[in-house]
Amino acid sequence: MNALGNAPASRAMRRLRALALGLAALGLCGAAWAQDGPKARPAAASAPASDAARSPLVKMADGRLLAPDIARIVNRGEVVVAMLAEDNPPFFSRKNGELVGTDIDLANQIGRELGVTVRYDRSAKTFDAVAEMVAAGQADLGISRLARTLKRAQSLHFSNTYLRLPHALLINRVRFAELAGDRPLPQVVRDYAGTLGVLGASSWEEFGRRNFPKAKLVSYANWTDAVEAVKKGEVIAVYRGELEVMQLFKDDPSLALTLRTVTFSDLESLLSILVGVRDPTLLSFVNELIVQRPVRPPPGSGLKPAQ
Question: pLDDT tens-digit profile of 2-33?
């Protein structure tokens, strides 16, 4: 009878113990959540700081945020411009101890807008050497009446065109008459198969191969040597810009007795600034400057504006 009377009490005790164990388990879960929960919340709060850390922009001493390629130049305090050692007026030349010309004006504008000085590195002896300096990171920009070519496009960026230079041939009259025979001049020029002098290590080698594929190209170290070669008849013609060819006759009108010119309305060099492949923001900056500050061709130069 006592056993029967105590059964409900035993069942009540078991229920109390089960309830106590359940509450204990809930307490442990709550403690675990309290430990883990606060760790997850700060991670979300720190996300903006993490995004800032991943930003490619460089914070300058004055608080500006600049792209790395621009920051490099600003921190250095100067933009390094590669330019040919030999003067090429009206693009760049030294007069009264000062560099002047269209390319000098363009470089100085870039320096002013960046708030830095311009340092000209004129150690390059050829136009291709100027391009190689920029490609190798030895200069920030190449500004040196440089034309766009497929060879240079493999290792450099070109800016927007800032000037256009029409092409021309300087021809030895006697040697050309021997080659032409009874054929009219336009036919001989368009299907030219004679010797053709070009400036070595320059865009003119590529232009000569492309525009006169049947010609026998002869490269010269400088323009003076090329002109002397066509005067002597060592080559029938030399190929360069209309600007340089016409300047010869302005300097010495008597050359018309032995030499003649052919100019082209459909062949021209697109002059651009060269920028390294690691400097995309610098390229964008230069392009925008050319758009906002178009270069005006010097009067009587034969050069054409970009547009």
Answer: 444 454 545 545 554 554 455 444 444 444 43
* Same-domain status, 187 and 252: yes
- Token pair belonging to 130: 């100027």
Type of residue found at 215: A
Q: Which of 134, 137, 78, 146 is nearest to 111 (CA)?
A: 78
Q: Is residue 71 part of a domain?
A: yes
Residues 92 and 70 in one domain: yes
**H-helix or E-strand containing 218?**
strand 216-220
| Domain CATH code at residue 90 | 3.40.190.10
- Same structural domain, 124 and 209: no
What does pLDDT average to over the chain? 89
Q: Say how many domains are in the chain.
A: 2
Say if residue 149 is in the same domain as residue 198: no
Closest-CA residue to 201 (of 232, 171, 226)? 226
Dist CA 56 CA 221 (whole Å): 44
The residues that bridge with 239 in the sheet, in sequence order, are 169
d(CA 167, CA 243): 8
3 lies in a domain? Answer: no
Q: Where are the alpha helices (DSSP H) in 164-303?
A: 173-180, 185-190, 203-211, 223-232, 242-251, 280-292
Domain for residue 291, yes or no?
Answer: yes
Structural domain for 251, as ranges:
166-268
Cα-based distances in Å from 62 to 70, 71, 114: 14, 12, 14
pTM listed for this prediction: 0.82
Q: Give, to the nearest 10 degrees, the angle between helix 102-114 and helix 280-292.
A: 120
Q: How does strand 117-124 pair with strand 195-199?
A: unpaired
